[in-house]
Amino acid sequence: MSVLVNKDSKIIVQGFTGKEGSFHAEQMIEYGTNVVGGVTPGKGGTEHLGLPVFNTVADAVEGAQADTSIIFVPPAYAADAIMEAADAGIKIIIAITEGIPVQDMVKAKAYVSGKQDCRLVGPNCPGVITPGEAKVGIMPGFVFKQGKIGIVSKSGTLTYEAADQVVKAGLGISTAIGIGGDPIIGTTTKEAVELLMNDPETEAIIMIGEIGGNLEANAAHWIKETGNKKPVVGFIAGQTAPKGKRMGHAGAIIGGADDTAEAKMRIMRECGIHVVDSPANIGMTMKEVLGKAHA
């Protein structure tokens, strides 16, 4: 079992023939991901990396039965690419693009929300990986090994770091979801955690957040309200960040008392989450927590 993507997902790459799209599509194919083609307007009917190129997402859905899309389209056109995928009936849309204007994302998120059975992950995210089945993103696949720990993270690099530690602790990953660090994103921390909580093969969850916004607090309260069904290990990046200064991600800016790393960590602890002060402790803490749960 997995969430969002698996070996049966039929994946297309929007921005297929561009530099970024080509590079990462090749890596995904090498990993064994079921990439069925790509979309580059004006290049329909040609082949790229041995796969068909379509002019539109609708053509890819009709011609290759695509149900999942990964987007490597420049910021100015990325929101349109998201809406095109939703309109064509794509079920899982993973937007890697960084720097999409907030106004564009407000429209794109509202549009996707109006479509039944359609989920957007990102933008400005590393993607989603179900180890051994499908890598739909830019993460280093070799770091991830199959297992029963789910990862939800705002940070790309900390997703890989957490996965590496989990594997070195003798555990593995069910599905890792990079939700992205922009102010407007498709899938929230709570929604991603909920997917993993409902996955019968995920035993525990790692939740990595950062300063800014209330996504982690919302997820923590939901975990507590639903009875802490599975152990959760949490970490918040940006503990030394100065107030009012954007740090890395567009959404990582402290705007109120509850936006700080300290406040988020306190809320998470109050809700029964095992919070670590350093990302270096994620793997071993998860091993200890699982050991106690099984005892």
TrEMBL record:
Active site residues per record: 249 (tele-phosphohistidine intermediate)
Top EC class of this enzyme: ligase
Keywords for the protein's UniProt record, in alphabetical order: Ligase, Nucleotide-binding, Tricarboxylic acid cycle
Cellular-component GO terms for this entry: succinate-CoA ligase complex (ADP-forming)
Keyword Nucleotide-binding attached: yes
EC number: 6.2.1.5
Catalytic activity: GTP + succinate + CoA = succinyl-CoA + GDP + phosphate; succinate + ATP + CoA = succinyl-CoA + ADP + phosphate
GO terms for biological process, alphabetical: tricarboxylic acid cycle
Positions of CoA binding: 17-20, 43, 96-98
GO molecular function: nucleotide binding; succinate-CoA ligase (ADP-forming) activity; succinate-CoA ligase (GDP-forming) activity
SUPFAM superfamilies hit by this protein: NAD(P)-binding Rossmann-fold domains, Succinyl-CoA synthetase domains
Protein name stated in the entry: Succinate--CoA ligase [ADP-forming] subunit alpha
Organism of origin: Bernardetia litoralis (strain ATCC 23117 / DSM 6794 / NBRC 15988 / NCIMB 1366 / Fx l1 / Sio-4) (Flexibacter litoralis)
Protein encoded by which gene: sucD
